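Task: sequence design from structure.
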């Protein structure tokens, strides 16, 4: 500190002391101490920098740095807390005791290959607001978003655009037969019958229309279509959960063979509008479709033929052949015949359902 600055400091300090209510004796002592320090400094008896106190400056700098670090940490923590408050699912597990596993709600990636095992259990109980709680389907895609088509490429006698159209038709069939609300409530899937399936495939379309008009044990529209009786149940919400995959390869004589394997999960409640009970029916469908070369087969260009249609209908009454799925509710007495088949997990997509028929109605391990 320069001498003139120090002198000014001493002068100001003495003035403040004189004008204050403090006793006069401390100011005299202060002058004596000041004079003694000045004489010691003149004789070189005091260490350099005694006035500025380098140690104290260093300590003040460390304190300032610590304050800066803690300020930065505080800002980061505040931002993190705000983000978690808006989206608790970012935290693993259930730290707030909500009773649900927030991680389980994270959507699954697209299915690109056959699974090797069944999905794990999911906590929760279905409600009208959260009808898929307690089900692996809570992580399935919503409706059409779950039908992801592979990239088209030329196959056999067909170019890339023709293969892409056939894949798009496959998706339209799946939507029309299993997701369209009109079909689900008992309507006729006209898009499938009028625009996708080949009318030249012997008996295919005629049989399907006959099944819809007069369903029976040997003429069941559920072999191809998902339908519920609106006088018995109502759909809960606007979402059907969907999980599966579509693949294709070279077919017969330059044709294109398309394989579709999808699981559809429906949330339902009794038709009574006052009922709050929720049940789920799970339908898995495996379809083998084919786009045949018109130069080698008597087919309609651009239409698909059905080579295979298998289905697994879970949580639907057995041995009722009225063309509708009949979900079972805990509050109601069971309908239909008692299950006679083995116990299966309807969410186990690693299982080969084979050519199952409605006569193989078994018990489900979960819904």
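Answer:
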């Amino acid at each position: 500190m320069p001498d003139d600055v120090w002198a000014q400091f001493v002068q100001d300090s003495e003035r403040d002391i004189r004008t204050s209510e403090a006793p006069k004796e401390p100011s005299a002592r202060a002058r004596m101490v000041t004079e003694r320090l000045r004489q010691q400094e003149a004789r070189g008896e005091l260490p350099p920098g005694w006035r500025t106190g380098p140690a104290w400056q260093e300590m003040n700098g460390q304190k300032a740095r610590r304050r800066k670090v803690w300020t930065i940490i505080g800002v980061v923590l505040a931002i993190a807390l705000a983000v978690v408050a808006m989206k608790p699912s970012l935290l693993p597990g259930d730290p707030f005791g909500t009773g649900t596993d927030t991680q389980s709600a994270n959507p699954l990636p697209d299915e690109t290959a056959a699974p090797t095992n069944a999905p794990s259990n999911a906590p929760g109980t279905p409600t009208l607001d959260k009808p898929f709680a307690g089900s692996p389907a809570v992580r399935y895609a919503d409706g059409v978003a779950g039908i992801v088509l592979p990239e088209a490429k030329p196959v056999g006698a067909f170019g890339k655009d023709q293969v892409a159209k056939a894949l798009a038709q496959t998706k339209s069939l799946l939507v029309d037969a299993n997701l369209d609300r009109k079909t689900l409530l008992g309507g006729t899937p006209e898009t499938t019958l009028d625009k996708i399936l080949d009318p030249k495939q012997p008996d295919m379309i005629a049989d399907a229309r006959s099944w819809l008009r007069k369903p029976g044990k040997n003429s069941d529209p559920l072999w191809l279509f998902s339908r519920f009786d609106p006088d018995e149940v109502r759909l809960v919400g606007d979402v059907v959960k969907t999980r599966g995959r579509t693949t294709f390869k070279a077919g017969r004589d330059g044709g294109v063979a398309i394989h579709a394997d999808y699981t559809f999960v429906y949330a339902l409640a009794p038709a009574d509008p006052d009922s709050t009970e929720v049940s789920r029916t799970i339908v898995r469908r495996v379809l083998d479709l084919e786009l045949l070369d018109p130069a080698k087969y008597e087919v309609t260009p651009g239409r698909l033929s059905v080579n295979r249609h298998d289905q697994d209908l879970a949580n639907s009454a057995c041995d009722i052949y009225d063309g509708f799925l009949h979900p079972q509710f805990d509050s109601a007495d069971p309908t239909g015949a008692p299950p006679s088949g083995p116990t299966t997990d309807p969410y186990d997509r690693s299982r080969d359902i084979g050519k199952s028929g409605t006569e193989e109605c078994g018990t489900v391990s979960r819904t």
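The longest helix spans residues 54-86.
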